[in-house]
Amino acid sequence: MIREFIIYVYLKSFSLIFRIFNVIDTKNKTTFVVSFGGNIQNVLHSHEKILENQETIILETPNSNIDISQFHSKALYFTPKKFLQFIQSIYHLATSSHIIVDNYYAFLSVTNFKDSVKCVQLWHAVGAFKKFGLEDATNTKRSKAAIKRFQDVYNRFDYVSVGSDSMADIFQKTFGLSSNKFIYSGVPRTDFFFDSNQLKYAKDTFNTDFPMINNRKVLLYAPTYRNNELNNTKLHIDIDRLYQSFKHEYVLLLRLHPAVSSNFENKYPGFIFNVTEYPNINHLLVGADILITDYSSIPFEYALLNKPMIFYLYDFETYKREQGLFFDDINKYPGSVATTTDEVISIIESKELHVDLVQPFADKWNKYSKGRSSDNLIYTLYEIDTTKSDERKIREYA
Predict the structure, then answer these.
(1) pLDDT value at position 387?
(2) pLDDT tens sequence across 213-232
């Protein structure tokens, strides 16, 4: 109740300031609102490479996983705690011709952009195992006001960039959108996996940053966050058992939610490395030999490396009931499935990793992601004619 009141006051204030600035004419300007760096960095590079006379503004949200100001001079902190920059941010949102976002932002529910403005969602995940948005099973615990706010935000999207028909189908359900709202450009953050120079640099950087691995193989454990585990310090995988089984042949990298990571005590510093704060997830994916995960979206990108995955689904039935899963059949996961630590160990030792399932999965969920997704998006969004170049010719969109 208190939370809803705070949100109500915030949005009312935001709406008032936005309406004041909205009387000003729209400028030839694109404003990016950033929580996750991957997509935005790639699109920003293509944006500045392809477009001329287009002003660019970056609004960095408090929970952003990258410091945008490090590589772009026109970056603002989009938070009331930085009041002047916050007001400037609202001004830019009200006067831009294009708004590009990468997450759910409640302020969009009260931003009535001019008809000429295009608002584009670059969702931060390539695919989805767990349900979210309007499909999230936990919505039954939310207020009617919250559900209405969700839909108001989703209705603000003029376009959503996708890498596959499968993800477009999911967005139609989760955001309540019609089929003509999608740009089949591919997902910009996947361009990295098609660039041999970036892959080599990532591998070299990984080896430099983790010399202590010392020729051992790398297990990367990256579970998704559970809403009820904010203060939980215990991992559901048995670290002791993994240490006893693999301390000589492997190292274990942990990519945890910050709330869990901050309370984690490392008993085996020569075997376990907490990489939660490591700045580039792609470098970890390149360096890993086996990914151990659950309902995270990481496998949709990791699959592009055609490397093995183990899905540690210890709470499958509970999670399916309480959160909801698009992959509600345990046999549809693109790798080996385990429900206990002993099963994880057995899979690794026996090498029954089912790598043959990975490439078909990658092809399905990255159908339009072929290494030029960032450029494709810019050409389509800004209606740039590409018919004179077969190399840059892309699909026509409704």
Answers:
(1) 60
(2) 999 999 999 999 877 665 66
CATH no. for residue 226?
Answer: 3.40.50.12580
Asked whether residue 290 falls in the same domain as residue 334, the answer is yes
pTM over 0.85: yes
Point out the residues of the chain with pLDDT beneath 50: 388-398
Nearest to 126 by CA among 200, 193, 48: 193
**pLDDT value for 393:** 38
Q: Tell me the pLDDT tens digit for each residue of 112-134.
A: 999 999 999 999 999 999 999 99
- In this predicted model, what pLDDT tens digit does every residue of 190-214 receive, in sequence order? 999 999 999 999 999 999 999 999 9
Query: Closest Cα to residue 302, out of 290, 314, 316?
Result: 290
Cα 395 to chain centroid distance, Å, stands at: 24
Same domain, 141 and 13: yes
Identify whether 398 is part of a domain: no
Number of domains the chain is built from:
2
10 Å Cβ neighbour count for 142? 13
Asked if residue 140 belongs to a domain, the reply is yes
Is 278 in the same domain as 334? Answer: yes
What is the model's pLDDT at position 390? 41
Q: Is the dihedral of CA 321, 327, 329, 331 positive or negative?
A: negative
